[in-house]
């Protein structure tokens, strides 16, 4: 049984593609059944004989003398673009093609016989692929069932990254030629060119959270991501996380010098942990004191996100869609996107780095969901939302912020992030408000997801040097639910009198209530018991939702923006392109 030479799936192509050429003997592509046809074609034009002879000979290494006189137009067309490297004959599909490799593209056109007048019957249709879109090249062999090495040489296969809407997919282009010498020259030249793309990673540290969402993270990596990394010749050092904080401890203790990037396969909680670990490691290497106010340095390694969670807002914000193959292709192609990051500090001590935070309704909902981890993820989320809405209460807070307009005269250095001046502590530069708030959101990225395709903070961007401060004041439960439903529609979710938005670069929030949250969730009917005790155990500790992770803060929290502190594999996306999902609980 033979494998099909025309399969374009990455995993099947890898199983039949090998880089070793020395094990295979040269095989002539001319079979015995063609001998009779040769006698009938003896009277064909000399040019046709030249084409047939070239198809079984070694490829032409292109120089000044590589082109014949009848190829002057081709020479002019190619040299106007870039310099030719090698030229040869390959079968693509069912036809023979004249294929030319330059430093920037592979171009091919079908070989057609000439008429007695010396003119081609039809114009040659030229196709090409840009090498900047090619991420892998493999030698293709046909092997029998159970055969692991050797096999009949079929040719070489290029693997291209193709874009369709927000999705990126792998596409295989097969160039068939059974000559070992011919394929070896092309293979080496292509590998030499592809190795020159500097942004593309060669070695990655990968963290996989097997407990993420529906526990599909490892399967997603094994089936969708790992085969693509193999095609791109990327070495992956995989760590399967065993507990919360496992990835953070590995990043703090391991030597990361041999890696070109870090990849996390999981949900928003996993992404937040690895992003915090990368940035914390950068501060440790730079000798920063995280127990005092400091200016953070940028992370040295880019971070790749393979979505495998329930919402994946960070991945959607940089990819536009929850699609593991798209995320993997952004990593393979080396697409870099600088991203603003927040730091969260309490009493002058750094708690963590992150992208977004919610206090009030958002924090209480997450804290309640964490207490019911035994429930399925979807049911747990809906239960927490309904329960928190039923016990909806405003938070008595003192909220201070630094508007962006007040620091426009400052000189911001996005590389060194030296933008936190001493005047940040001056009381007159802060705008302060006191009152009751149902929810307070601070977001440095748009936070796109299927339930909010325009984003939780549509007025901010990935790296515009500002945060969105969104406050929902005290109002009726019905009005607040209307506000929540607007996130899933095309209507403006901020067009309510109790909702205010500000563009800021620093926020202070100090709760003025002295009671702990356990008092707020107590049931009127007395069903509350110690078995269902909340995570917030100490009096005066308040729940924050930071990137989908629960953060306990006993007092005032300071949130500062650090422009372009982290590099992610991805590109800027205006709006999530996947189908909208409505929350059935409201």
From TrEMBL:
Bias (Polar residues) ranges: 1-16
Biological-process GO terms, alphabetical:
sphingolipid metabolic process
**Compositionally biased intervals (Basic residues):** 34-43
Start and end residues of each stretch annotated as Disordered: 1-79
From which domain of life does this come? Eukaryota
Tell me which residues make up the DAGKc domain.
199-348
**GO MF entries:** lipid kinase activity
What's any one GO cellular component for it? membrane
Identify this protein by name.
Answer: Ceramide kinase-like
Specify the species: Oncorhynchus mykiss (Rainbow trout)
């Amino acid at each position: 049984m033979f494998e099909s030479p025309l399969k374009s799936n990455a995993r099947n192509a890898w199983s039949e593609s090998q880089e070793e050429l020395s094990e295979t003997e040269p095989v002539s592509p001319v079979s015995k059944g063609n001998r009779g046809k040769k006698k009938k074609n003896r009277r064909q034009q000399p040019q046709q004989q030249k084409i047939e002879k070239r198809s079984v000979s070694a490829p032409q290494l292109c120089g000044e003398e590589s082109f014949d006189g009848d190829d002057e137009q081709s020479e002019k067309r190619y040299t106007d673009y870039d310099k030719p490297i090698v030229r040869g004959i390959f079968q693509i599909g069912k036809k023979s093609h004249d294929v030319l490799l330059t430093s920037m593209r592979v171009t091919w056109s079908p070989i057609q016989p000439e008429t007695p007048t010396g003119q081609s019957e039809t114009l040659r249709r030229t196709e090409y692929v840009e090498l900047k879109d090619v991420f892998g090249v493999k030698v293709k062999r046909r092997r029998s069932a159970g055969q692991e090495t050797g096999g009949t040489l079929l040719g070489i296969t290029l693997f291209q990254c193709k874009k369709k809407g927000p999705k990126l997919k792998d596409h295989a282009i097969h160039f068939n030629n059974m000559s070992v010498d011919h394929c070896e020259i092309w293979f080496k030249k292509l590998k030499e060119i592809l190795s020159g793309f500097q942004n593309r990673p060669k070695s990655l540290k990968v963290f996989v959270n097997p407990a993420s969402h529906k526990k599909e993270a490892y399967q997603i990596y094994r089936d969708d991501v790992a085969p693509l990394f193999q095609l791109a010749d990327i070495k992956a050092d995989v760590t399967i996380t065993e507990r919360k904080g496992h990835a953070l401890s590995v990043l703090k203790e391991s030597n990361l010098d041999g890696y070109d990037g870090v990849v996390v396969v999981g949900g928003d909680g996993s992404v937040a942990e690895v992003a915090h670990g990368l940035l914390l490691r950068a501060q440790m290497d730079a000798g920063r004191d995280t127990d005092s106010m400091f200016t953070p340095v940028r992370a040295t390694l880019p971070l790749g996100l393979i979505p495998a969670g329930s919402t994946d807002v960070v991945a959607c914000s940089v990819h536009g869609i929850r699609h593991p193959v798209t995320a993997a292709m952004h990593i393979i192609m080396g697409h870099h996107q600088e991203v603003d990051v927040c730091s969260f500090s309490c009493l002058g001590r750094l708690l963590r780095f992150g992208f977004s935070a919610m206090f009030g309704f958002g924090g209480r909902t997450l804290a309640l969901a964490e207490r019911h981890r035994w429930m399925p993820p979807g049911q747990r989320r809906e239960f927490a939302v309904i329960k928190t809405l039923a016990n909806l209460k405003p938070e008595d807070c003192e909220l201070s912020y630094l508007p962006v307009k007040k620091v426009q005269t400052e000189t911001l250095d996005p590389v060194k992030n030296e933008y936190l001046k001493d005047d940040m502590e001056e009381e007159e530069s802060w705008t302060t408000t006191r009152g009751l708030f149902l929810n307070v959101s601070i977001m440095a990225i748009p936070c796109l997801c299927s339930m909010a395709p325009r984003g939780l903070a549509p007025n901010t961007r990935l790296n515009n040097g500002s945060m969105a401060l969104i406050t929902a004041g005290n109002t009726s439960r019905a009005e607040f639910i209307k506000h929540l439903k607007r996130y899933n529609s095309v209507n403006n979710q901020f067009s309510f009198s109790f909702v205010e938005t500000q563009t800021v670069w620093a926020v202070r929030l100090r709760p003025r209530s002295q009671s702990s949250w356990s008092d707020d969730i107590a049931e009127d009917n007395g069903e509350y018991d110690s078995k269902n005790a909340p995570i917030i155990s100490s009096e005066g500790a308040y729940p924050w939702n930071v990137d989908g992770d629960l953060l306990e803060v006993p007092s005032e929290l300071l949130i500062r923006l650090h422009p372009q502190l982290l590099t992610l594999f991805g590109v800027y996306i205006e709006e999530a392109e996947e189908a909208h999902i409505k929350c059935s609980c409201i």
